[in-house]
C-alpha cells in the first residue's frame, strides 16, 4: 500500500478543499471503507548472523508488510503464490464473523494456495480495535511469513488512554540459519525434538548480543517527555518471551486487541500468538544514556530451547547539536534491563492475574453468566510408536514425540474441514465424537501414567449456534509439565480462572471472575495447572483450536469446533467465494 503525495503548487489549495469536503460529509458516511492489499509470496535473500539464505516472504519484506485499517473496515487481500510451497495466511485474532472461508488455516477452512495460484481473503473487522497480526498457517512457514495488523478505532473515537505521540509495532521473532521447513521435516521423521533457533529478533533483527550482528539491531529513537504506544507481537515459533526496557516502566493498556485496565510493569510476558499494547513514557529530560530493550524465553518444559537474548536499543534524541557533538551516542553509558529467571512461573502467574477487562459502559465484558455446555480438555505431550522398521526413533524410550488434547492427537485431513461441513460430506473427512472430557481420568499433574501413547484421529466438537461454553484446559505431567499457549480461531474468550495442580470442580468455580476477566484469543495454560475460559458460540463455521508452540501443533496438540448455523439469515455462514482454493 502506498500513499499518494501531491507536490504540485496546487497541493495546499487541493488539500484545503479536500479537508473542507471531508468535514461536510456526515460522520457515519466515513465510518468504514474497503482497503485493498496485495501479497506476493516470493523468495528473498536475507542475511542475518553472517548467514545468507533464501526465505519465503510477502513482497520481499521480512517481517512482512503492515496492514492498517479502522474498526468496521472491509479488507480485500489478494495473496499470489510464486514459491514452491503451498501457502495459506491466517489473520490472527480477527473474528471472521460468518466469513470462516477467510480465516486461513490450511486444511481447516481452506485448501492451501498452490504454486502459481491466488486467493482473495475478504473479511470485515467488526467490533475490534488494537493490535493483531497475520501469519502463514501451514507447516512452519510462519517463521518468516508474518506481519502486524493495526486496527485503529472508528474515526472520531479516542483511545481510552493517553493519546500517544507515536505508535511503533515491534514483532518478536526467531531466526534459523537452517531452513525451518527442513527442521520440522527432520523432527517428524526422527520422532525427536526439533533443532532450536539461532537467535530471537525484534522486527527481524537479532541485535548486538549475537555474533556478527552488531549492525542488525532494532533502534527505537525517541524524544524526551513523550508517550509512545508500542504494539508488541510474539511471532516466535516455539518460545514464550519476557520483555523489558532498562530503567523504563511500561503501562499495559491492551491485550489481543481488547482494552484492559491499565497497569504498570517493568517486564511483560507474551506467548506466541499474543499481542500486547504498552505505553512507554519517556524521561522528561535527555538522560545522557542509552538503554537496552531485551527479550529472552520463559521456559517450563524439559526440551531443549534457544537460551539466548535479543537486544534492541532505546535511543533518545539529543536536545541540541552541540550536546550531541560533545557526547557521541557510542560514548553514552548503556543500561541493561534485568529480566526474570528463565523458569520464573511466579512472575508469569502474577503478570497474568493483573490482566483485567475494562468492563465499563463503552467497553463491556459480556461474560456468559450461564453455561450450556461444559468441557474439560487435558493438553500435553505423549508418544506414538516408532514407525521405522528395525530402527529406534529419537523420542522418549525409542518412540516418537506426540501431543494431544484429551489424548487425541489430531490428524490433519487432506481436504478442508469447512468445505466438508458446508457441503454435507463430513462423514468422509472427520467424526463428531471428540471427547468432552478425558476418556480415562488420571492424576493429571501427579506421577504420570506408565502408558504415554496417544490415540490419533480427526475428531471435532459440534456446537449448536449461540451455545455458551465453559472449557477447562488442564496441563498434564506426561513427559514434563509445560505451559501451553492455546489459541482459538474465530472467537475471543474470557479467562475466568486459573490455578495450579488438578482442577477441582467442587471448589475452583467459586473463585471464578465473572465480572471483569481478561478477554483474549490466546491464553497460556499454566505449567502444571489449569485455565478456565468461557465464550458464546455465535459465529458459525469450523474453528481451529491449537497450541501456538509450533512444534506442539506439528505433534498434534490441536482440534476444531463446528458451530452450526443459527435460524436467522445473519446467523448463517456465508457461501464460499468462487476463487476458494481446491485440494
Automatic annotation (TrEMBL):
It is found in: Secreted, Extracellular space, Apoplast. Its main location: secreted. Binds 4 Cu cations per monomer. It catalyses: 4 hydroquinone + O2 = 4 benzosemiquinone + 2 H2O. GO terms for cellular component: apoplast. GO terms for biological process: lignin catabolic process. This is Laccase. It comes from Prunus armeniaca. The lineage of its organism: Eukaryota, Viridiplantae, Streptophyta, Embryophyta, Tracheophyta.
Amino acid at each position: 500500500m502506498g500513499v499518494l503525495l501531491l507536490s504540485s503548487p496546487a497541493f495546499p489549495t487541493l488539500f484545503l478543499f479536500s479537508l473542507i469536503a471531508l468535514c461536510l460529509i456526515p460522520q457515519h458516511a466515513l465510518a468504514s471503507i474497503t482497503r485493498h492489499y496485495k501479497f506476493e509470496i516470493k523468495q528473498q535473500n536475507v542475511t542475518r548472523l553472517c548467514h545468507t539464505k533464501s526465505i519465503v516472504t510477502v513482497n520481499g519484506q521480512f517481517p512482512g508488510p503492515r496492514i492498517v485499517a479502522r474498526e468496521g473496515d472491509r479488507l480485500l487481500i489478494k495473496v499470489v503464490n510464486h514459491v514452491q510451497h503451498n501457502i495459506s495466511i491466517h489473520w490472527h485474532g480477527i473474528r471472521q464473523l460468518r466469513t470462516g472461508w477467510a480465516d486461513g488455516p490450511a486444511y481447516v477452512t481452506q485448501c492451501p494456495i498452490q504454486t502459481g495460484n491466488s486467493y482473495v481473503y475478504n473479511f470485515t473487522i467488526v467490533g475490534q480495535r488494537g493490535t493483531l497480526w497475520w501469519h502463514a498457517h501451514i507447516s512452519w512457514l510462519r517463521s518468516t511469513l508474518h506481519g502486524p495488523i493495526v486496527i485503529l478505532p472508528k474515526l472520531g473515537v479516542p483511545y481510552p488512554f493517553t493519546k500517544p505521540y507515536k505508535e511503533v509495532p515491534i514483532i518478536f521473532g526467531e531466526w534459523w540459519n537452517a531452513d525451518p521447513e527442513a527442521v520440522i521435516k527432520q523432527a517428524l521423521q526422527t520422532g525427536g525434538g526439533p533443532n532450536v533457533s539461532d537467535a530471537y529478533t525484534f522486527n527481524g533483527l537479532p541485535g548486538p548480543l549475537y555474533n556478527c550482528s552488531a549492525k542488525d539491531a532494532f533502534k527505537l529513537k525517541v524524544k524526551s517527555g513523550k508517550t509512545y504506544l508500542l504494539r508488541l507481537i510474539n511471532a516466535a515459533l516455539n518460545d514464550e518471551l519476557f520483555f523489558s526496557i532498562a530503567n523504563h516502566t511500561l503501562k499495559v493498556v491492551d491485550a489481543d486487541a481488547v482494552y484492559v485496565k491499565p497497569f504498570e510493569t517493568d517486564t511483560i510476558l507474551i506467548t506466541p500468538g499474543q499481542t500486547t499494547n504498552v505505553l512507554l513514557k519517556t524521561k522528561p529530560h535527555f538522560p545522557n544514556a542509552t538503554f537496552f530493550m531485551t527479550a529472552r524465553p520463559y521456559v517450563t518444559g524439559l526440551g531443549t530451547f534457544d537460551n539466548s537474548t535479543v537486544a534492541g536499543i532505546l535511543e533518545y534524541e539529543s536536545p541540541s547539536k552541540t550536546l550531541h557533538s560533545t557526547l557521541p551516542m557510542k560514548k553514552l553509558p548503556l543500561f541493561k534491563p534485568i529480566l526474570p529467571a528463565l523458569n520464573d512461573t511466579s512472575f508469569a502467574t502474577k503478570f497474568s492475574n493483573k490482566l483485567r477487562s475494562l468492563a465499563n459502559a463503552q467497553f463491556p465484558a459480556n461474560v456468559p453468566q450461564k453455561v450450556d455446555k461444559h468441557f474439560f480438555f487435558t493438553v500435553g505431550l505423549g508418544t506414538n510408536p516408532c514407525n521405522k522398521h528395525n530402527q529406534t526413533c529419537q523420542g522418549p524410550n525409542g518412540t516418537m514425540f506426540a501431543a494431544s488434547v484429551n489424548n487425541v492427537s489430531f490428524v490433519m485431513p487432506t481436504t478442508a474441514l469447512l468445505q466438508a461441513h458446508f457441503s454435507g460430506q463430513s462423514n468422509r473427512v472427520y467424526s463428531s465424537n471428540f471427547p468432552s472430557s478425558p476418556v480415562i481420568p488420571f492424576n493429571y499433574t501427579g506421577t504420570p501414567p506408565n502408558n504415554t501413547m496417544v490415540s490419533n484421529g480427526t475428531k471435532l466438537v459440534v456446537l449448536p449456534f449461540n451455545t455458551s461454553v465453559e472449557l477447562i484446559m488442564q496441563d498434564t505431567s506426561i513427559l514434563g509439565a509445560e505451559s501451553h499457549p492455546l489459541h482459538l480461531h474465530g472467537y475471543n474468550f474470557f479467562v475466568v480462572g486459573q490455578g495450579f495442580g488438578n482442577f477441582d470442580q467442587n471448589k475452583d468455580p467459586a473463585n471464578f471472575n465473572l465480572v471483569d476477566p481478561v478477554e483474549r484469543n490466546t491464553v497460556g495454560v499454566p505449567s502444571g495447572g489449569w485455565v478456565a475460559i468461557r465464550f458464546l458460540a455465535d459465529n458459525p463455521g469450523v474453528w481451529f483450536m491449537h497450541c501456538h508452540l509450533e512444534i506442539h501443533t506439528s505433534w498434534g496438540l490441536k482440534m476444531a469446533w463446528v458451530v452450526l448455523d443459527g435460524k436467522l439469515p445473519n446467523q448463517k455462514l456465508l457461501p464460499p467465494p468462487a476463487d476458494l482454493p481446491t485440494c
